[in-house]
Amino acid sequence: MPISQTIQESLINASWIRRMFEQGIQLKARYGAENVYDFSIGNPDLISPPEFDRALREEADHSAPRLHGYMPNAGYPETRAAIAEMLSAESAIKFGSEQIIMTCGAAGAINVILKSLLNPGDEVIALAPLFVEYGFYIQNHRGVMVESQTDAELLPDVEDIQRRISPKTRVLLINSPNNPSGRVYPDSLLRAIGEQLRQASERIGHPIYLLADEPYKKIIYDNHEYHSPFTFYPNTIVATSFSKDLSLAGERIGFLAVHPEAEDAGDILNAATFCNRILGYINAPALMQRVIPHCLDANVDVNIYRRRRDLLCSALAKIGYDFIEPEGTFYLFPRSPIEDDVKFVQALQEERILTTPGTGFHRKGHFRISFAVDDETVAAAIPGFEKVFNRITSKT
Prior knowledge:
Helices cover 41% and strands 13% of the residues. By secondary structure, the chain is α/β, with parallel strands linked by helices. It has two domains: 5-48 and 300-393, Aspartate Aminotransferase, domain 1; 50-295, 3-Layer(aba) Sandwich (Aspartate Aminotransferase, domain 2), CATH 3.40.640.10. Helix 11 (302-319) packs parallel to helix 13. The relative contact order is 0.17.
């Protein structure tokens, strides 16, 4: 076998999201793209806000020596300072540029911090349903993922988290607004988690870091609010990107932020800056780093996502699907009408509807619908959702 055993095993257990994406390509080739309803991948489809377009044009017009060259490994100081100011306003905690590292998206940020923190065998508690790549990221750095299932409402189960904490626990990884459930964690839960981690860190004799993955924090609906985890626990680290709120998934621009009062914050930031280099990321894209400070207050039109959510939820509720209405993100995570979520997703494919089984997110009995698609796709797929639901439920 020419490839490593680890990667061979990983390929076998590879992301369901990508698997469904590839099946979508095959169906589109057979039936035509307009006849396939692809809800499988969270690829934001909204136009980037005008503030981004203006800043991009202005920065692209500049010309100077080394304008597109290397910069400090943590990123341009002025970009980091602008993000620090934004975080200070969000959390009422004074951030400086020294607490920010520019990264190649949130994925780059998560890998950088895990590389910085984990010794072989250290444990990372992740809350399921979860973004399946988390397991691979943890494995990359010789850590062990410990799964904690959320409760029936798809919110963190603080008692279950408590049971998962051990002397080897190094990180608790959370994601709110959550992919795939769309849940937004309330401040009461974040406060409870912070207190839990404070007590556990004291008990086991070393800090447990709260790592918050937050690329959807501006995609929130109705009267729900984003609460900064920095305000509830000092040993907090945030990994995020501009992939969703500015529709820049392909530009790979994000950042890592460490709470100014985190234990060993200076050492962590030095290590993360070093890991940003040795992992091969070297620097976050120079052009994007220059553009981002001009549009930190900008956002895509969330009302478009809200409209799609409402259209989808209204139709699926009438059919009989059981789900919790998403408070954020652009995902819906209904219960499968049958226990075998993979079988149900395959049944939807017969109507050329592509979704992702909850099994792929470590939560069986559900399936994920990404409504980062146009309104016409949502409307056209509803008869197929109804047909499969009626056919499946009539047999049970």
